[in-house]
Structures are given as structure tokens and as C-alpha cells.
Design a protein that fits this description.
Length: 585
Amino acid sequence: MSIVPFIPDSAPFAPAQRAWLNGFLAGLYSTAEAAPAAAATTVSRDVAVLYASQTGTSERLAKKIAKELKLKGHVARVTSLEGYAPSALATEECALMLVSTYGEGDPPDPARSFFDLLCGDTAPRLDRLNYSVLALGDSHYEHFCKFGVDLDQQLAKLGASQLAPTVLCDVEVDETFEVWKADLLQRLVQATVASVASTTASAAPMAVATSLYHRDHPFAAELLEKRALTCDVSSKQTLHLAFSLRDSDLTYEAGDALAVLPANEPSLVHEILTFVGLSGEEVVELPKVGNCTISEALGTRLQITRLSRKLVDAYGKDGSCDRLLALLKPEQQTHLDQYLYDRGLIDLLHEYPGVLTSAQRLADLLPKLAPRLYSISSSPKAHAGEVHATVAVVRYRSHNRERGGVCSTMFADRAEVGSRLPVYIQQNKKFRLPSDNTAPIIMIGPGTGIAPFRAFLHERCATNATGRNWLFFGERSAATDFLYREELEQMTTGGLLTRLDTAFSRDQAHKIYVQDRMVESGAELFAWLEEGASVYVCGDAARMAKDVDLALHTVIEQHGGRDTEAAKDYVQNLHDSKRYHRDVY
């Protein structure tokens, strides 16, 4: 059967574009003739129909295709790009973008903010998104459909996949729109049928197995991004890390922690092996692991940078080290704590040499290398397929040796973008945003304690939460240590962050901390509490969390007209009503 071209030569299309459209129509007809059963298959898809319109044409067409989608059994939601966040787009699996071009190839006014965010540094990955763009324009202008083309390129750059090719529409849009619509409806059916068929074919008679990643079976996550959040001249180094969760079954919520299984510094492992007189190839047996070389055991399985009372006891007995054993007496507890504080296995080997010669005994003495937990600094709704961490790199010198945090120095010195690291998710169900999106929240997170609050803010943006957000953040200096400064200032300007109070301890003659800022703003802070605000604290448990808790009591006493006991009752009520949450370490 011959097909008469649908798009005549007189239509305002370039020859290549007209040929593509006619070829596609011919393909549609031949497909319909050859496989009517497949074409008749009805499968429901959830489709976001997004439009950016200056004169109303894109909106009209968006509503038209949404109506057609619903008639075909799909779920279609029509939304303007005005006020729409890229983080929301990251949660979609299928989106149709109908957009016009305005001015010198610019987005329509309602879509400017959306596109700026989509092209910004904080734009989320869109790996799960399948999309198609219908670009509207006027071929008489130099920048014909430029915004649609730019949008298509940026979506692809962020990892989204084309459901159907971008189509450029001239002033007379209806014919081209109908072709684009027919193409999409066919592709939606084909894509979904293929997905269902694949799922059905792979299904076994028994329950479908689910991949579960945990401490003994971590997921090898690719490091997508590593960047410094502090300036080079800062006395501290803090990193922002982004990992891919693609091809895993790992899911998380804002407030959870990322667990990382670290690796010890290779040069330290080599030094220990050399000192004990081992080649590293000796085979040892480890609980739950089985056989492996002592080199692997020291590298990734065993704790070598810290001492414990149990290790000192066993080592002292093996070597009959009287001075070492004397530290274990009850009256010497303070001295033992001081000894354990900043020493590792290598110090024990140097101070009491010749005790260990067996690879297996060395392995038996050492505890298992524990995972490191980092409060997640991303929202799954804003950063689909990714998980972020905010890590302070620990470095110090003691006993004439440069030392550092096992995991943080691994990130800083040895982990490169593209490398894979073993991770899993540690849930923290007690550190969750309020279920009521209109409820205000107060967040107190100095240093890397800001991590979960970055996640909270992105989550609230992605869910269009209307509750007010107040952040107290502190560090050493604004010039060198203002973590996520640009993001936070943008959130403040945009209204997402209602209030940002900072405390930079070294930027003035007397030190100022977040708890001082709380007391300074006590009247408003208490007003927020009375209006139902939830309080969240993240960071150091030894000092900061205690000082913040004391400041909270002080605010309630001073501005709530309560005595000490009544203030305690007030805070206890915050706990009981799940409005006082602490993620401290």
C-alpha cells in the first residue's frame, strides 16, 4: 500500500525535517498494518505534561495532548513551568515539554527561573527521566525554536533520555503537533509493553528476589563528584561528595546516613607488614569473610589506626609487656585513656617490638574495620539516583607522625571521580521532616552538621512545602569556611530559607557560636516554637549539642516566662511530641 505524504512541499519545513515527518508517518501506517494487535495494547503511564507559554499556544496544546493521553488510559498532569522546580522533574519518569521561544532565543518569562535552575550548579541528575520536547517558534526569526533546542540539550546533559526526538514547530503548529502526538502515543505503548514483557519474562514462579545492600554486602557506588567546600587557605578541608545509586536497590530519605566502608592508607599497611616481617601474601582467616591475604585484611578489613583496651591487653600478655599491662589497672584508667587516644597499631609495634611474627595472630588481635556514617546531604526527590555527603577531612600530628581520619583522608587523597566505593544506607527514622509540609522547622547545624539540613531544604523545595525554614549555621570564618554559601544565599533570596543566622567564631575578637545566635534571637525563636516549629540539631555531641540544648532552655525561660523546671517540661514536651530531633555524634 502506498502512502501519500502527509506533509506537502508547501508546508513551512526544511527539506530534511519534512522528509523525517513523512517517513515517520509511513512507518506508523506500516506498523499499524503489520501489527494491529500490538498497537491496540493499552498500558497506563504516568506522564507529566509541562508547558512554557508566552501567548497561550503551548498551554493549549499541553491540555490537548493531556486529554488524549487520558482517553488512552494514561495518567496525565498538566503543569506550567512557572514555579516548577528541576528537583520535581527529577522525580518523574516521563515528561512532555511543550515550550515556546521568546525574544532573542530566550525562554518565556514564566519559565526563566526553571531554566536558570536547570542550568545551574545545583541542578539534579535526571537519569530516570524519559522526555520529548515540542518546540514552538517562528522561522522568520534568527533564533527559531532556540529555547526548545537548548532545553533538549540540557535535559540530555543531566542524564535524561529521549522518549521521542525533539520536534520544531513553525507558526502553524497544529499539523506538526498532531504528528508529534501520534508518535508519542505509539512510543509510550511500545516502551511500556517492552518493560512489562521484560518484567514478566524475568519473573520466577517464586517471590522475586530483591538485592539488599548492607554492611556485609555493600554496594559499589561510583563517585560522581568531589569538590572542596572550603577555600585553600582554610585551616580545614571539607568536601562535597556525590555518589551514584544507579543499578542498585538502595533508597533513602532525607535524614538518613550514608555508610561507607573505608580502606586504610596503603603506606601504613606496608609499614606494618614490613615491621612485623610479613610479605603481605600470607593467608589468614577472618570471621564472616573466610580466607584472604594479610595485606587485604589490613587494607580493608581490620582497624589499624586505633587502639582499644582489649588490644592492649592481648598484645601486652603476648609480649609480657609489664609497663603496658600496668596501664590496665583500674587506678590507671586516666593514663590508659590518654595512651589510647592518639595512638594506633604502628605505635604499639614500635614501642614494644618483636611481639608479633604471625600473620594470623596479627589478624586475630585487630577489631573489624567499622563503617563510617555520614549524614546524607541530598534529597532523593531533588537528586534522583544520587546520594551526597559532606565530609570534613581529619588531619593531625601526634608522636612525630602525620595522621588522619581513615575515611576522610581516603576521600581526600585516594578516591577519584569515577572510582567505586562500598556503601550502604543507614536509616535514621527519628530524624525526619514533619509530615505536615506547612509546619515550620528550626535547624541548627554548624560545620558538617549542615548536611541533613541541605537535604531537608532540597526536599522541601521538591515537595513544594510551604512551611517556614530557619537555619543556624556556624564555622570558623565566612571567607574560608562558609559551606554551601552560594546555595544557601540563593535559597534565602528565593524565599525557601526564611531565615539564615550565621556564627563565624574567628571573624571577630570574641568567639561567637550558633548557641549565641539562638539566644540573641530568642524572642522570635520562641515565637516559632509556639507556632509549632520542630527543632533539629546535628553535629558534635560532646560540646555543641549540649550548648545548643542549654541555649534552648534559656530561650524558653527568658521569652516564655518559665522557671527552670517549667522550661525543662517544655523541652520534654517537644521531645514527646516529636518536635525536638538530634543527630549528634
